[in-house]
Amino acid sequence: YITDIYIERKRQSFEVDSGAGYTLIPETDYARLNLKATLRKPSTLFRSYTGEVFTPIGFVSVEVEYQGRKSQEEMYIVPSKYHPILGRIWIRHLQINLAEIDKNNTNLSKSDCFAIDPIPNIFSEYKDIFEPKVGCIPNIKCSLKLRENAKPTLIKHRIIPYALREKVERELDVLEKTGIITKVNLSDWGSPLVVIPKPDGNVRLCVDYKIAVNQQLQAAHYPIRNIDEILNNLRNSKVFCRLDLYKAYLHVPVDEDSQTIQTISTHRGTYRMNRLSFGIKTAPNEFNRILEEILQDLDGTMSYFDDIIIHATSREECGKRLIRCLDRLKANDLHLNKDKCDFFKTEIQYLGYTVRYNQISKCQNKVEAIEKVPRPKNADDVRKFLGMVTYYSRFIPNASTLTYPLRKLLRKNYKFSWSSICEAAFIKLKQEISSDRVLVPFNPNLPITIACDASPTGIAGVLSNIIEGGERPVAFVSRSLTQAEQNYSQLDREALAIVFTVNKFYNYVYGQQFTLITDNKPLTRIFHQDSKLPAMTSSRLLRYATFLQNFNYKVQHRKAEEHQNVDFLSRSTHHQKVPGIETLLDEELQVICDQTINQIST
Prior knowledge:
Layout lengths: L1 E6 L2 E7 L7 E3 H7 L12 E2 L5 E2 L3 E9 L2 E10 L6 E2 L1 H6 L4 H6 L6 H5 L4 H7 L36 H16 L3 E4 L6 E7 L5 E5 L19 H6 L6 E6 L11 H6 L2 E3 L2 E5 L9 H13 L5 E4 L2 E6 L2 H17 L10 E4 L1 E4 L2 E4 L2 E4 L1 H8 L7 H12 L8 H9 L12 H15 L13 E7 L3 E10 L2 E11 L9 H15 L1 H4 L3 E6 L2 H6 L12 H10 L3 E6 L6 H12 L11 H15 L1
Parallel strand pairs: 2-8, 3-7, 10-13, 21-24, 24-25
Antiparallel strand pairs: 1-2, 1-6, 4-5, 6-7, 9-14, 10-11, 12-16, 12-17, 13-14, 15-16, 18-19, 19-20, 21-22, 22-23
Helix pairs in contact: 11-14, 12-13, 12-20, 13-14, 15-18
């Protein structure tokens, strides 16, 4: 059985094991919780059900809470290959009712509950792909396409400090020996090598393709998978594995012309790059296309750039899917970063989100990073803060209106001035990010509702699934009204909110039966699919009604006092009593989000 315990006010999932005396948490989960407790040396040994005896890394004393009941308990930190296990001591002290947990869980087999050390077998059976080296995908050649009139450009190498030269040359020798780069005497192309010192004293070699190459490349048009689609596909899954590819792009060979285009200029001369290089602007799209082709027919397996997630409803099924994926990676000579992989987790961090059985929440370390952001001092600070916040906009009611005072500071030729309105928005956004609001993956097989509302300055909506008789939010959407739209009647604004929300959730509700909820009673007749439109209906409402004819819905009126969830979304700036907040279209938010998506999910 699986249940949640709050450790120092931070949620953690455990497998309930009344056969275990102590509570154990894997090292990776312990690091994620970022507890301030003192780690103490243990004197206890543990034995798994397979007979393996191991020493825990340490133990801490922490405050734990379950359904309002609190206790000070000891928690043992164990290697990451083990599962979080809730033992008898915590069960007794927190008065946990196992029968109650049983009602909310599907029975797991004995192997699910106690098989806590299958990972070493995987590492031994697939030893090759867990070696930290770069393979080469067979039977494929990636080709970079240049724009018309593109000209070869050679940029002089950058000076390497003498203290780093030996390390840089050692790295270049390794790359040349493994065939990733080849020394060339003459080249019309050349982009400078960039050396980045690493915390461990070594160096990372990068290339600045911005001037010589990226400006002359044709755009890659392969679509990147939508993150919402990935998260929603995880519904009903209880066990997860995450695989991280080792130096992913370098596994992809490129054709001869592309090798020349990617030539590197260094203090030792020029090198031709034989693999797809990090820094090429089309590399993410190209690599995504290739990896999706490799994994496309594997059930329960999805990729987003170099991150692969495997999910299933049971540990046994997840294991089978993992083996099929590892076989496929091995056949294509793709290698994994062992230290960044997670196996058979009931809760996993993926793409900046924490995912567990039918729940999606924000990663705690990302939330804490946002909480610690100091008050912006210039437009660049504002842009970075908005990038972090808008990545989690699906959790934030009325995000567009809340962020408006800050986005206003990004306008061209706008003098930066931090006002009380900006301060109020800054604080409110941090509060919204810090909330414990949890979303659910969209399930088309459950009843669907869309609730909408409008205020004089904004429109908003929420998509929900009906689960056990209650509305559970899947995502929130909102935008501010333009100056022209603010002049609409309240009826028209409410209608616009409906059309906006349905259009935003088009991929979810098209072809599905759903309930459209509004607190505006006249609209329930105007948009009722079985009623004729009133003779005096305005042309705007006629257009809206025509758009909604494409969908299969029933409209439901809900009194304003019962409509608070979405009503708050469109009116939140009013409740904050922040005067003078203007509004505008929210297209720029997506731009900011796109620019920071990789940064926050790395």
